Amino acid sequence: MAGSSGYLDAASTEPPHPAARAALLDALDSAWADPARLYGTARGTRILLDRARARVAGVLGVRPDEVSFTSSGTQAVHLGVLGSLRARRRVGSHLVASAVEHSSVLHAAELHERDGGEVTLVGVDRAGRVDPAEFAAALRPDTALACLQSANHEVGTLQPVAEVAGHCRAARVPLFTDAAQSLGRADVPAGWSLLAGSAHKWGGPAGVGVLVIRKGTRWRSPLPDDEREARRVPGFENVPGAVAAAAALEARRVDMAADAARLSALVERIRAEVPRTVPDVEVVGDPVRRLPHLVTFSCLYVEGEALLTELDRLGFAVSSGSSCTADTLRPSHVLEAMGVLTHGNVRVSLPRDVEAGDVERFLSVLPGTVARLRGDLGVTSR
Known about the structure:
Layout lengths: L17 H13 L9 H21 L6 E4 L2 H15 L6 E5 L4 H12 L3 E5 L9 H7 L4 E5 L13 H11 L3 E4 L15 E5 L10 E5 L25 H39 L3 E4 L9 E6 L4 H10 L19 H6 L6 E5 L6 H21 L6
Parallel strand pairs: 2-3, 2-4, 4-5, 5-6
Antiparallel strand pairs: 1-7, 6-7, 8-9, 9-10
């Protein structure tokens, strides 16, 4: 369904950008050799890899030697979090993170806790936003690392990264920022020490992540030594993937402002129309300080899985709750932390090429779909 008019799950993965597809096909022919070798074909591959690194660095406003390519956004998160904690063990073993971080961050925190570390999770308000003062209060002299996402992956709320970064800087604590949902869609505020991203979220290929470690940030790999990617990421580099990821990120950056305005208007349409046409529904997330392409709402008296299945039958691909726990019955940890309705949750995230007609079709079938499912349960909406 990717690329079709009913695909409304870009927060899970954005359909491939044409720039990524063209760059990938070209690089498959020209960048297949081992970039660590010295012969001509290998040197050509190394040049393309370094050029991709520089292009990503240019978009992010960092130095090329601060950028490493990983095998996924999840690997970038794990390396960033665990590597920073390992390098700062003399400072302490305390980790601070928001309660609504992506599961990859929380799983790294759980591993750290099992290994004897201490974790403090900072709560959020009903919009899913961290209070910078509350986050600052959680920092301690033995805090080795703080983690705050740039924007929430389930409800789209932008986090106060700049304010929290200021508090972390004053406490001499590095800040790790998971920017997977923001890159290519919105600028990430400055002040972070480590950052992770995932190429398939911005229209690049799957299997490519980005880890940025700013100069002066202490970091040590939590994995066995390997000579690849400046000893930060083990394994043979996916050079064609890195080239395609850089091409897509550059292309998205060029169109970012125009895309954001257009998609934000469509999201506003959804935010206004859903509660008007569907009874007993709650639209969640910050209505203003949010990503431009994402909106989440919850429908009382409807199971999220049943609603997604019915929408899929009608030709619409959306997600429910946490996309990383869609195969479990556990409610979303994000929605629980926000204290909002978790029943019948739907996340709509618009790809860059979505049309207004696609959104209108979705809005036209949603009320009847919810009503039918409630009727099957014997529920009559108010």
